[in-house]
Design goal:
The chain is of the alpha/beta class. The protein is built from eleven helices and twelve strands. The longest helix is centred in the first third of the chain and has 15 residues.
């Protein structure tokens, strides 16, 4: 079978979507399939990771045109980014493409409901972290005098919650109640004392595991990977109730908040019952090979 992926694998500190592309391309080849990254003759399945133009300028309209000339070709659309982080044009494009795909994959119930999809030709497949994020986690429930909080983001979109991270940093400077580390990219006007620039997955997995509790203030995430990486590293999660998929992913493994005061209360609650939260998150053993296996099964069932 020849499968077209409209995004190419990449190395380095990229988001979860690219990490999944890397793994999917690898697994397709290992399963004996021919993988291509450009529209060419003989494609059986077009796997759309993002409907927008790729580096070669190919986008969803090209997929429709290709199928018009090749009616047996199927389009499988992984609905990832919904444009909720300041990309209304992407939200509209996803809306327009839903009725043209033969099969749709949503990363969360929240994503399916937000985009307003009604139909039966779909499956909700939660994102999962890379295996290496499980490598350094510890079952130690003894907390240090200053509990170590951590978060990480590669995007600088305001919906990541930078204003709350700054409030947390300011609170810590005044009270010394916790320690807080920010990993990734951030706006210049966000001043965090313990700041680490973007690092690769292996380094990130090791760094996350040095902390006790993960914080995310991000909202309206269609398929958040950062919290899954934290859970794989063995960290209970304090998350925003407007987090979208984050709520779907984390409700069994942490505590939600909806304001800065509630953020502090949620952190203190996790500290108070740390043993119970730690035991629960240590039971999270999933990795992205499960996601790729499910994608592979759907692709192979299309022909």
């Amino acid at each position: 079978m020849k499968v077209y992926l409209n995004r190419r694998p990449k190395a380095g500190p990229w988001g979860g979507g690219i990490k999944t592309v890397n793994k999917l391309a690898e697994s397709l080849i290992e399963s004996g399939h021919n993988v291509t990254f450009q529209l060419e003759e003989g494609i059986d399945v077009i796997f759309c990771i993002d409907p927008r133009p790729n580096d070669g300028g190919e986008w969803y309209q090209h997929f429709i045109d290709y199928r018009y000339d090749n009616p047996s070709t199927k389009i499988v659309q992984r609905v990832g980014d919904l444009g909720t982080h300041s990309k209304p044009e992407l939200t509209e494009l996803v809306h327009q493409t839903l009725n043209y795909s033969n099969f749709l994959i949503f990363p969360s119930e929240w994503a399916r409901d937000y985009i307003g999809f009604i139909g039966e030709n779909y499956k909700v497949i939660y994102n999962r972290p890379m295996k290496e994020f499980h490598q350094h986690k510890s079952d130690n429930v003894d907390l240090p005098e200053k509990v170590r909080l951590v978060t990480h983001h590669w995007s600088m979109n305001p919906k990541k919650g930078f204003h709350l991270y700054q409030q947390l940093e300011d609170h810590i400077r005044e009270t010394e109640e916790f320690e807080f580390t920010y990993i990734g990219r951030k706006p210049d006007d966000v001043n965090i004392s313990n700041y680490i620039e973007p690092i690769n997955a292996s380094q990130l997995a090791e760094e996350l595991a040095k902390h006790n509790i993960y914080i995310t203030a991000s909202i309206e995430e269609a398929g958040a990977n950062h919290v899954l990486e934290a859970m794989a590293a063995g960290l209970p999660v304090v998350y925003h109730k407007g987090g979208g998929s984050i709520v779907n992913y984390c409700e069994e493994y942490g505590v939600e908040f909806d304001s800065f005061d509630n953020l502090l209360s949620a952190i203190r609650k996790v500290i108070e019952y740390y043993g119970a939260f730690k035991d629960r998150v240590l039971s999270y053993e999933e990795n992205n090979s499960i996601v790729v296996d499910e994608y592979l099964k759907i692709i192979e069932e299309m022909t």
